[in-house]
């Protein structure tokens, strides 16, 4: 039976030791911490999980370990996208085999496919892999923007059940919500932008795939739980964290969020090249903000 998918889904970091190897013990601790703090689902080895620099066997081991640790308590969404259609099919099929509940498929980066190419790419994966799939549009990182009319076409495929949209544009969000409302089967709209995720929820969206939830899982889940009954209160809570959301992306993700988790004694401060540890010039201001928010 497919698990329900909504609310606060954390784009989980992949912890590493100081030798740059995946730290599975820290991964287990993070997973338990998220479940205790109300996270509604875990995205394993998405782009925040450094999918671009994990070898395929490492990538799959992290997903498999996450599935085992979660043990059915909340959904696990496997980051299985690639700019190679064949590789995305292989990783998505393997993610299904090792027990992931859903997969998350980023638009092909660097290739810059046409909208027709995007449709053929995602349909090929959806035809090839019997797992429910969420599209991921993040043009600031991929140089590829999947337009709403393309999403509308893809939403008709039985294995494509939603999209993570990282474009902060109300007109875009409204178009996607309209597509969702017109679908016969449920089509889920998730925010991929922490700074504006509450606007998407208030517009009729279903949840957020959040980087900030790595650091404040209880807050993001609380906002997702409360906004329908008391949007004003949810906005008041959310407004307190806007500076933190900005700090999450002061350098390329996940350098800032990994450093914050290191300051919280949850992981080592280790990230793979070509990304570097967060520049020291940002440390003081981020620590100040974390202290103000009682995160440290």
Defining key terms:
single chain, 296 residues, alpha/beta, TIM Barrel, 13 helices, 8 strands, globular, 8-stranded parallel β-barrel, 13% strand
Q: What features would you describe in this structure?
A:
- This protein is an alpha/beta fold and 296 residues long.
- The chain has 13 helices and eight strands.
- The mean pLDDT is 97.
Discrete helix count: 13
Identify low-pLDDT runs: none
- Helices and strands, in order, run as EHEHEHEHEHHEHEHEHHHHH
Strand order of the largest sheet: 1-2-3-4-5-6-7-8
Largest β-sheet summary = 8 strands, parallel, barrel
CATH superfamily: Aldolase class I
**What percentage of residues falls in helices of 4 or more residues?**
40-55%
Describe the global form: globular
Q: What is the straight-line distance between the termini?
A: 40 Å
Number of domains: 1
In terms of DSSP E residues, the strand content is 5-15%
Work out the radius of gyration. 18 Å
Strand element count: 8
In a nutshell, what does this entry contain?
This protein is of the alpha/beta class and 296 residues long. The chain has helices spanning 24-36, 56-70, 85-97, 115-128, 139-142, 148-154, 170-182, 197-202, 217-226, 231-239, 242-247, 255-263, 283-292; strands spanning 7-11, 41-44, 76-79, 102-106, 132-137, 160-165, 188-191, 207-210.
Q: What topology does this entry show?
A:
Blueprint: E1 7-11, H1 24-36, E2 41-44, H2 56-70, E3 76-79, H3 85-97, E4 102-106, H4 115-128, E5 132-137, H5 139-142, H6 148-154, E6 160-165, H7 170-182, E7 188-191, H8 197-202, E8 207-210, H9 217-226, H10 231-239, H11 242-247, H12 255-263, H13 283-292
Parallel strand pairs: 1-2, 1-8, 2-3, 3-4, 4-5, 5-6, 6-7, 7-8
